[in-house]
């Protein structure tokens, strides 16, 4: 009632039509367009490198696992001594805790490193709990994590040297 005193009338804002946007883009097109080249002669080759890696240098591995409403994902990056990267990503098909996802990521990374016949490895992770448990500084008390811890300890035996580092 108070608004009728001032003769205020609500007016909807006008929407930008799709045709107006198309006309704008047509009038402001690039003056010197570059054609897209779709020629990929070596599309079946992912990486082509020489295998002359120094024997004394350690590979590096970063791992991360996350469990939330959107899903359970694990990410691992293996890095050669020459800074060449191998990323691995996976979506877990089961419900788990964050710590379980971190252990899954670490396990996957260690398996990938073992498949690449890595002997020396530096492992980096952001999970304080997982890193300190794998270093042996903390006990693994959670019954859900004990099988993961045992599996990782088993995988560790296939490496000459392996170190775990916490990345805050």
TrEMBL record:
<protein>
    <recommendedName>
        <fullName>RNase H type-1 domain-containing protein</fullName>
    </recommendedName>
</protein>
<dbReference type="GO" id="GO:0004523">
    <property type="term" value="F:RNA-DNA hybrid ribonuclease activity"/>
</dbReference>
<dbReference type="GO" id="GO:0003676">
    <property type="term" value="F:nucleic acid binding"/>
</dbReference>
<dbReference type="Pfam" id="PF13456">
    <property type="entry name" value="RVT_3"/>
</dbReference>
<dbReference type="InterPro" id="IPR036397">
    <property type="entry name" value="RNaseH_sf"/>
</dbReference>
<dbReference type="InterPro" id="IPR012337">
    <property type="entry name" value="RNaseH-like_sf"/>
</dbReference>
<feature type="domain" description="RNase H type-1">
    <location>
        <begin position="55"/>
        <end position="168"/>
    </location>
</feature>
<dbReference type="InterPro" id="IPR002156">
    <property type="entry name" value="RNaseH_domain"/>
</dbReference>
């Amino acid at each position: 009632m108070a608004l009728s005193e001032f003769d205020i009338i609500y007016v909807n804002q006008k929407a930008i039509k799709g045709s107006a946007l198309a006309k704008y883009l047509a009038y402001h097109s690039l003056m010197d367009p570059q054609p897209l080249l779709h020629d990929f002669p070596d599309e079946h080759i992912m990486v082509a490198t020489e295998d002359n890696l120094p024997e004394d240098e350690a590979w590096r591995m970063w791992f991360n696992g996350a469990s939330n409403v959107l899903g359970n994902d694990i990410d691992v990056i293996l890095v050669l001594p020459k800074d060449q990267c191998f990323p691995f990503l996976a979506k877990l098909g089961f419900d788990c805790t964050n710590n379980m996802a971190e252990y899954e990521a670490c396990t996957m990374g260690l398996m990938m490193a073992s498949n690449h016949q890595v002997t020396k490895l530096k492992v980096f992770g952001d999970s304080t709990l997982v890193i300190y448990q794998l270093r042996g500084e903390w006990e693994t008390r959670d019954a859900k994590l004990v099988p993961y811890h045992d599996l990782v300890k088993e995988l560790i035996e296939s490496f000459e040297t392996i170190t775990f580092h916490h990345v805050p």
